[in-house]
Amino acid sequence: MSAAELGSFRRPKDRLRRRRAVNLCMELLGWLAAALGVALLVILLGSVARRGASQLSLDLFTKSYVPYATTNVSQGLANAFVGSLVVVGIATAMALPFGILVAIYVNEFAPRAVRNGVNFVLDMLNGIPAIVIGVFVYGLIVYGRGQSALAGSFALAVIMLPLVARSTIEVLALVPDSLREAALGIGSPRWRATLGIVVPQALGGILTGATLAVARVAGETAPLLLVDSIVGQGTQWSPRIALQTVPVAIYELSDSPFASDQALAWAAAFVLIVSILLVSLTARWLATRSRRKLVRAAR
Amino acid sequence: MSSTIEHAVRVETKRQPLPPRERLEQVFAIQDLTASYGSKAALKDVSMEVYKNLVTAVIGPSGCGKSTFIRCLNRMNDLVPSFRQTGAIRYHGQDIATKDVDPVAVRRTIGMVFQRPNPFPKSIHDNVAWGLKVLGMKDNLSERVERALTQAALWDEVKDRLKASALGLSGGQQQRLCIARAIAVEPDVVLMDEPASALDPIATQKIEQLLNELKSEYSFVIVTHNMQQAARVADMTAFFSISRGEEGERWGELVEYDETEKIFTAPSDKRTEDYVTGRFG
Fold it and tell me: What residue ranges in B125-218 does DSSP mark as E strands?
């Protein structure tokens, strides 16, 4: 190729310059958007950490909250942490097996029409505002019987169910059909193939989805305000009575006129954020580990 | 035509002549098998017999329904929601194509090896043992595993690493593991859907040797689009082809079914001759 021909590459100079400018502009915009997203998170975490981390103490986890206590008593939120543990724990126990069973049925056994129908319903359920679920559970359980941690668990379970089911369906769909055929081809019944081959293959992904669902409902406040918020004093474990929970405690204490209460709310918010972060990170770690295991196995 | 004969004779020299067909025991008697996916016909009016302790090859161009056919034999197509079939598939006299026959029971005696090796993501040992456990053949588990792996000519290569993942094996080893897995549960018939198409020539050769050694114990039906492979391993060969209707619809049908030697040296149908001489397909 001669130099004259090469020169033709340089001729549309203006256009090239314009392209470079547009490219730079777009890159800058994209960078700004990403930075803004990260900045929001950093500001949020930073302000909570600044005001909450300093309030952390052993008392926070060991002492229960006493309303209208004299100001020199150091307060704790053990009751709220225990309550959240109980409420979220029971919600998980209700939603996890149910959701996984729904997913197994939908992905492995249901005819296509049923599969599409259930998927649609799960998406609808996923889109229902939490407060509406709270009102529903209020009418179903709380009205006439009073609040209880169980009612709270049930509300949270309703929120968790579509999350768990949808994520499990997606993971099961990733299991190659060749594995199902392999199992069925040697005369295995459908249920043995599902439980022995398909579900173990998808277990890492199922756990990840479940963990993320737990993290999501641990911070849920709206339904709990309606069905599990009028609580007694002291640390209680019984799910039959209403138990204080971390998000509701944050909501109530942040509204208090006392500076010590507000400080507690910040501390609780900090603990909640950090524990959700930890749970999410664990889920991610589980996911990469199971994926790495599969990749290593595939070599 | 002369080139066909020369070529075929070259590969056929070792073959023992088959006894007359009336004296062979029938495993499958297939009658007027017609199959479709939704409104799309895949196979029309296939009638043929499969004989015991023989290797029966199914050859034909892509889309001629050979995979559909072999998957009918152990009800594997039941997994496809839109699949419909009519006609009878008699297995030792009993029609297994009817609704009241449990497909799981069918697949227990009629095993299958697939096109791509599909070992379970488990250890080598567990791959073979899983089916045994599921089917309740738990006595002498390790002996059964060893025997299956030996029959599949894999034992010597894996006996020191039975606990290692099966996914670490080479493609050819994985496919032999799948064969071991299939024969471990002591089926009567083993169906193979292009078992060597994803393998290199050496691995292919090993699989073909296996077929020869194992056919005294099992009956094999093997789909292949490799004609040399059919000529090398099969006693009987069925040639499927694509027919076109007046409105452009296509379906697969059985053109000719005979002893392999006859199919490759003196086919009676022009379409078979065109196919085996490489003029078509």
Answer: 189-193
Backbone dihedral region for residue B44 (phi beyond 0: left; psi -120 to 50: alpha; all else: beta): beta
B134 inside 8 A of chain A by CB: yes
Contacts of A197 in chain B (CB under 8 A): 120, 130
Q: At what angle do helices A112-127 and A149-174 cross, to 10 degrees?
A: 140
- For residue range A3-55, list pLDDT tens digits in order: 555 555 656 677 888 899 999 999 999 999 999 999 999 999 999 999 998 88
Q: What is the pTM of this model?
A: 0.81
pLDDT, one tens digit per residue, over A241-273 is 989 999 999 999 999 888 888 999 999 999 999
CB proximity under 8 Å: B 43-102 to A: 74, 76, 79, 81
Q: What is the CATH superfamily name and number for domain A60-298?
A: MetI-like (1.10.3720.10)
In order of their start, the domains of chain B are 2-276 (3.40.50.300)
- Parse chain A into domains and list their residue ranges: 3-55, 60-298
Q: Taking the CA of residue A219 as centre, how many other CA atoms within 13 Å lie in the half-sphere pointing to its CB?
A: 16
Sort A22 into a burial class: Cβ within 10 Å, 0-12 / 13-18 / 19+. Answer: exposed
Q: What percent of chain A has pLDDT over 90?
A: 63
Cα pseudo-dihedral B112, B118, B119, B120, rounded to 10:
-100
Looking at this predicted complex, what is its ipTM? 0.85
